[in-house]
């Protein structure tokens, strides 16, 4: 039996009263891709931060290639041959790729020799692992996919034999993610050991050899990927049976609720982002907008939600709505019975430092139910929040907690509760489950479907094709500000949608 | 206007720009490393007092300079302790440094010298003398010929005038200040230390995960800032003037900050900005009451001009100045 590349024994770590890791043991064989899966907050990142010397474990020991190793700081981790690609990249934005790679691994006091050597070695690494980057481009000039490659190269430049990737696909398009997995397989072939942290079951099934499951700070199982399946892993993660497919009856669409004609939107920089689209959403149906991020979907949602002006015609239940000026702001839209779960809940949906009950008021703070004369009726608002927290199973069930202290899934539940409970005619939903764990995804999907079944119209924008497929009754694909075509989910597949998303027109596809 | 007058204004521009430049470069190191420092003023003032006091007591300007640097470093250490180790608010810490210096200098000066919060006037070895270049016209020629320098100057050619006035005849600290510009540029952009320093002001997490100490780098930057502010203060009290008086920095630390923003945190541009502000001060000094055909512009207007123009330049001509991204933010480890 080979010596494990990494062996953790009895690792425990607490942050105040919260025990993030409880007595965790794990053994990773060299030359394999080992997945660690768990919901947000299960302790995956904490465990890896301990391995990289970012945190110090309260108890337990680390063995690298059989040797007991102390890792008090990142320097020690690098010396032990461990490289880490964090979820949020640790790059200096206005430095070049090359400067970022040498930072901290320079040779001497002067820069020039270090940069020259790095340039040479980078070329070798690029050829060896097919990791292509332009060494002289600044980080803020390159896309996230390439930034991630820079992070991987940083680790390889420091002679890492063990590579940890924390939620590496969160910021990538599906094509970029596929490319990443090809790179990881290539690294495995070259004998590197890789730890892949994720909460996406698909990635575990596709990319890993072995998978460990974490739940609430504990390691619940380690299994061979080939011997398990997504349903079993989901159950191990959440601790109960999880429905991965959304359970819904066929839609029975009624009269048109939202009618869009020749809608155009120009952004702050003067670039036209939505180029004359027509779309109808009827009562009792969910229309999903698929597309690679940045093709005008966000702007479409923002115009409908009253966050930016546009031109053209939109009608709600037959009545035209203003697209700019009076009556076109978010407040007016809500009065017009349009509810909006925005794409970026942390910036547009919530104020992170405010209490949950304050967040529940936003957009509806002029509601007479929350007012007493010129004052807010905070007691009524808090009582209302209590009801919503209970109904939407927000955890922890504490309205006094600041929004930032909830997990991503529970933050989203607060936003969804606020919007859905207003009984809108039209619900706009952007990326409802981005950064949300499996249990909460299931819950939020159920709520959206339930609203549809009450005969409401729902417009969904998501970059997750899986989500589009499982929720939508009709799918429209956006590319470069145009709607490339509409499809029914049971009459199309990922391949056809993928072509539409890439701009290959409906007829050709 | 006579050419000699222009040269004399430029000469005084250099003298007046020197403390600004030293303080500006001091701020540049600190802010490039992510530590905002509005305490440049206080550090300069503290150094001005201690350098003048020690020079007056010992008769040695070099001991004075050392004392000035040491006192400025002590305040820099305080700012570092508050904003790096204890992750406090850097603006508040800077304000505290300024108040501490303003109060303490006068208090200690009164206790030591009983001259109403000043130090005795410095003379001889207690002051930085002007370095005289070979062949330049200076006080020695004046002594030898028995005629004033200005007369000798007027008789010679333009090149000789420029050489004698602009290049020769400054205190050594002036040359130090202007030499510090290329040195700073080289350190920032050509050395490992500079790369790390700039990185820690942009994204300390990148430095930390690369296995380099964020705290160490930031303390180093703050210390360099302290040394340069110390030289700036010593220059004020022992070279530009002959002794310490209350509040003698007169907002120079803040003008240096303005110059730093104007220069967008780049060393060569910082020199340009400081020369511009120095020029404004020199013009204000030279032309006190200006008579514009019956309307006399009072001296107070001229004295206020550099400060007014600082505001105008900052508000109108800087354009988008993007400070180091992690500036003002204490570094806390997070995933």
UniProtKB/TrEMBL annotation, chain A:
What PROSITE patterns is this protein classified in?
ABC_TRANSPORTER_1 (PS00211), ABC_TRANSPORTER_2 (PS50893)
The organism that produces this protein has a lineage beginning with: Bacteria, Pseudomonadati, Pseudomonadota, Alphaproteobacteria, Rhodobacterales
Q: Has the keyword ATP-binding been applied to this entry? A: yes
**Any one GO molecular-function label of the UniProt entry:** ATP binding
- How is this protein named in the record? ABC transporter ATP-binding protein
Superkingdom is Bacteria
Annotated InterPro entries: AAA+_ATPase, ABC_carbohydrate_import_ATPase, ABC_transporter-like_ATP-bd, ABC_transporter-like_CS, P-loop_NTPase
Where in this chain does the record put each ABC transporter domain? 6-241, 258-505
Automatic annotation (TrEMBL), chain B:
Q: Which InterPro entries match?
A: ABC_transp_permease
Domain of life, per lineage: Bacteria
Q: What is its main location?
A: membrane
Question: Quick check: keyword Lipid biosynthesis in the entry?
Answer: no
- Topology of the protein relative to the lipid bilayer: Multi-pass membrane protein
> Subcellular localization, per the record?
Cell membrane
Keyword Cell membrane recorded: yes
Task: Provide the transmembrane region boundaries.
Answer: 12-29, 49-79, 91-113, 172-189, 219-238, 270-289, 295-318
Q: Which UniProt keywords apply?
A: Cell membrane, Membrane, Transmembrane, Transmembrane helix
CDD domains in alphabetical order: TM_PBP1_transp_TpRbsC_like
PANTHER family per UniProt: GUANOSINE ABC TRANSPORTER PERMEASE PROTEIN NUPQ, SUGAR ABC TRANSPORTER INTEGRAL MEMBRANE PROTEIN-RELATED
Official protein name in the record: ABC transporter permease
**Which taxonomic lineage is given here?**
Bacteria, Pseudomonadati, Pseudomonadota, Alphaproteobacteria, Rhodobacterales
């Amino acid at each position: 039996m080979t010596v494990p590349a990494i062996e953790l024994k009895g690792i425990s770590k607490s942050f105040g009263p919260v025990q993030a890791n409880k007595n965790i043991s794990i053994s990773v064989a060299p030359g394999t891709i080992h997945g660690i899966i768990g919901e947000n907050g299960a302790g995956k990142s904490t465990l890896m931060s301990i391995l990289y010397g970012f945190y110090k474990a309260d108890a337990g020991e680390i063995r690298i290639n059989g040797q007991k190793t102390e890792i008090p700081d990142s320097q020690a981790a690098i010396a032990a041959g461990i490289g880490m690609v964090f979820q949020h990249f640790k790059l200096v934005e206005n430095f070049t790729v090359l400067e970022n790679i040498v930072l901290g691994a320079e040779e001497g006091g002067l820069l020039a020799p270090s940069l020259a050597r790095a340039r040479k070695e980078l070329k070798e690494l690029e050829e060896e692992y097919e990791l292509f980057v332009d060494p002289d481009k600044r980080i803020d000039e390159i896309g996230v996919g390439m930034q991630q490659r820079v992070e991987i190269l940083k680790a390889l430049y420091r002679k890492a034999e063990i590579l940890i990737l924390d939620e590496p696909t969160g910021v990538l398009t599906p094509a970029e993610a596929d490319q990443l997995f090809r790179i990881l397989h290539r690294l495995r072939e070259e004998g590197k050991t890789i730890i892949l942290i994720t909460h996406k079951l698909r990635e575990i099934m596709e990319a890993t050899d072995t998978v460990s499951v974490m739940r609430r700070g504990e390691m619940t199982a380690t299994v061979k990927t080939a011997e398990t399946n997504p349903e079993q892993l989901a159950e191990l993660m959440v601790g109960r049976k999880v429905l991965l497919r959304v359970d819904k009856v066929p839609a029975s669409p009624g009269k048109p609720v939202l009618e869009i004609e020749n809608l155009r939107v120009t952004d702050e920089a003067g670039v036209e982002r939505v180029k004359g689209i027509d779309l109808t959403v009827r009562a009792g149906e969910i229309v999903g907008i698929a597309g690679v991020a940045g093709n005008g979907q966000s702007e479409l949602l923002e115009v409908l939600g009253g966050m930016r002006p546009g031109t053209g015609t939109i009608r709600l239940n037959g009545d035209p709505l203003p697209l700019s000026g009076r009556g076109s702001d978010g407040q007016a839209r809500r009065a017009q019975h349009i509810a909006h779960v925005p794409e970026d809940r942390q910036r547009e949906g919530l104020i992170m430092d405010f209490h949950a009950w304050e967040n529940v008021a936003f957009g509806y703070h002029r509601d007479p139910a929350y007012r007493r004369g010129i004052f807010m009726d905070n007691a009524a608002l808090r009582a209302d929040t209590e009801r919503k927290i209970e109904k939407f199973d927000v955890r922890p069930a504490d309205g006094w907690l600041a929004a930032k202290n909830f997990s991503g899934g529970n933050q989203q539940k607060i936003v969804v509760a606020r919007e859905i409970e207003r009984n809108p005619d039209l619900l706009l939903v952007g990326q409802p489950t981005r950064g949300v764990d499996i249990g909460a995804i299931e819950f939020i999907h159920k709520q959206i479907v339930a609203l549809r079944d009450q005969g409401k119209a729902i417009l969904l924008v998501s970059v997750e094709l899986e989500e589009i497929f499982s929720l939508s009754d009709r799918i429209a694909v956006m590319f470069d500000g145009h709607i490339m075509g509409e499809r029914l989910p049971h009459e199309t597949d990922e391949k056809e949608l993928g072509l539409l998303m890439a701009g290959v027109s409906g007829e050709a596809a | 206007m006579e050419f000699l007058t222009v040269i004399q204004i430029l000469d005084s521009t250099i003298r007046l720009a020197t403390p600004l430049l030293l303080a500006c470069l001091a701020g540049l190191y600190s802010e490039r490393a992510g530590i905002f420092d509005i305490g440049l003023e206080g550090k300069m003032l503290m150094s001005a007092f201690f350098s003048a006091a020690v020079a007056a007591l010992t008769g040695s300007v070099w001991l004075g300079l050392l004392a000035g640097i040491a006192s400025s470093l002590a305040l820099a250490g305080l700012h570092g302790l508050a904003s790096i180790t204890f992750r406090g608010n850097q603006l508040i810490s800077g304000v505290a440094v300024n108040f501490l210096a303003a109060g303490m200098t006068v208090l200690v000066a009164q206790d030591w010298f009983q001259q109403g919060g000043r130090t005795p006037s410095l003379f001889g070895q207690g002051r930085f003398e002007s370095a005289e270049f070979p062949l330049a016209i200076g006080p020695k020629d004046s002594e030898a010929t028995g005629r004033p320098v200005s007369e000798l100057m007027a008789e010679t050619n333009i090149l000789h005038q420029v050489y004698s006035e602009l290049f020769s005849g400054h205190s050594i600290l002036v040359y130090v200040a202007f030499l510090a510009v290329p040195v700073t540029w080289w350190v920032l952009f050509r050395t490992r230390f500079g790369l790390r320093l700039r990185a820690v002001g942009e994204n300390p997490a990148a430095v930390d995960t690369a296995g380099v100490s964020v705290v160490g780098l930031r303390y180093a930057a703050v210390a360099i800032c302290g040394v340069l502010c110390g030289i700036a203060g010593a220059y004020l009290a022992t070279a530009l003037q002959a002794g310490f008086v209350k509040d003698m920095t007169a907002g120079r630390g803040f003008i240096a900050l303005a110059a730093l923003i104007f220069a967008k945190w780049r060393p060569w541009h910082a020199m340009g900005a400081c020369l511009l502000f120095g020029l404004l001060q020199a013009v204000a000094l030279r032309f006190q009451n200006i008579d514009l055909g019956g309307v006399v512009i009072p001296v107070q207007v001229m004295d206020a001009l550099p400060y007014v123009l600082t505001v105008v330049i900052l508000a109108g001509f800087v354009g988008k100045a993007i400070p180091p991204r992690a500036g003002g933010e204490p570094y806390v480890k997070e995933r």
